[in-house]
From TrEMBL:
The lineage of its organism: Eukaryota, Metazoa, Ecdysozoa, Arthropoda, Hexapoda. It holds the Pfam family tRNA_bind. The keyword Coiled coil applies. One of its GO terms (biological process) is translation. Residues 59-93, 124-151 form a coiled coil. It is found in: Cytoplasm. The keyword S-adenosyl-L-methionine does not apply. This is tRNA-binding protein.
């Protein structure tokens, strides 16, 4: 009897132990699950914070890039306007006709129209009258400018020696062309910031020693051209016959940069001769030496004012 009760008590005690262990295991599992959920929530908050920070950084970088691009666009726009103004000035100097564009006026009118809706009717009428008056004045100004431009284009400078930029130069350096036996490569001081490189086919006619440090007459507004790989920026004037060539002699007291004039033809040299117009080719037949060895254009002597005439050495009545 006692043993049965003891066995029953032991069984109950063992069951209680199992129940206690099971409950403890369940409790630990619940605590672990809550910890995982809490850690997950913290991770999600951290991810959201990082996303916000990344979005903010991206927006800041984008705004900075936009500011840089706007600044660069503004600088490029200024450069474009400057180059356009320079191009227009050069074209005007060379006699190219300019046609003004009416776009700016219409744009200004359009920008003024945007704010009309919020103004009283009477002010709108007054503003329209003023705009019409201003538009008519601008149109009249454009027409006058166009007329002046057309008149300037009609007045064409005669094709003669006045269009040639003839100056005194001094050869400061001379050597044989590395790729052409008949050519000299000269550095000529024409009174400018840098000497000009000039290619001359004088090897067969003038010794190298006679070319060194001598004064010459230089045609300075020819279009530069490459001769056997070297750019020639001017031309030395010479007197030439069928079998002889002589470099023209400037006055002894002339200096580099002195301008060469021709009596009866006031200087009006082009900035650069247009090869298509063949201005030098038109003048060349009338450039000759006379019986006194003086270089002339249509019998009018070439000279440096106050210093003397341009002379050949021995060749009379020959082509220059």
């Amino acid at each position: 009897m006692f043993s049965r009760k003891f066995a029953k008590v032991s069984s109950l005690f063992q069951s209680a132990t199992y129940l206690n262990a099971y409950c403890s295991h369940k409790y630990l599992k619940m605590i672990s699950l809550e910890s995982v959920i809490e850690n997950n929530n913290k991770s999600m908050k951290l991810v959201d914070a990082l996303k916000c920070e990344l979005t903010s950084i991206q927006a800041e970088l984008l705004n900075r890039k936009k500011r840089e691009l706007r600044g660069e666009n503004a600088r490029l726009q200024k450069q474009v306007e400057s180059v356009k103004a320079e191009l227009i000035a050069l074209e005007c100097r060379n006699g190219k006709k300019q046609i003004p564009l009416p776009g700016a006026c219409s744009l200004n009118t359009a920008s003024c129209d945007d704010g009309k809706d919020n103004q009283p009717q009477q002010f709108q009428k007054k503003e329209n009258v003023e705009k019409t008056k201003l538009k008519n004045e601008k149109k009249a100004t454009r027409e006058k400018t166009q007329e002046k431009t057309n008149n300037a284009a009609i007045i064409e400078v005669p094709v003669d020696v006045r269009r040639l930029d003839l100056r005194i130069g001094k050869i400061v350096e001379v050597s044989r062309h590395p790729d052409a036996d008949s050519l000299y490569v000269e550095k000529i001081d024409c009174g400018e910031s840098q000497p000009r490189t000039v290619i001359s086919g004088l090897v067969k006619f003038v010794p190298l020693e006679e070319m060194e440090n001598r004064l010459v007459v230089v045609l300075c507004n020819l279009k530069p051209v490459k001769m056997r790989g070297i750019l020639s920026e001017a031309m030395v004037l010479c007197a030439s016959s069928t079998d002889k060539i002589e470099v023209l002699n400037p006055p002894e007291n002339a200096v580099p940069g002195d301008l060469v004039h021709c009596e009866g033809f006031p200087r009006e040299p082009d900035a650069q001769l247009n090869p298509k117009k063949k201005i030098f080719e038109t003048c060349a037949p009338d450039l000759k030496t006379n019986g006194s060895l003086v270089a002339c254009f249509k019998d009018s002597p070439l000279h440096v004012p106050g210093k003397g005439q341009i002379l050949a050495q021995t060749l009379k009545n020959v082509q220059v």
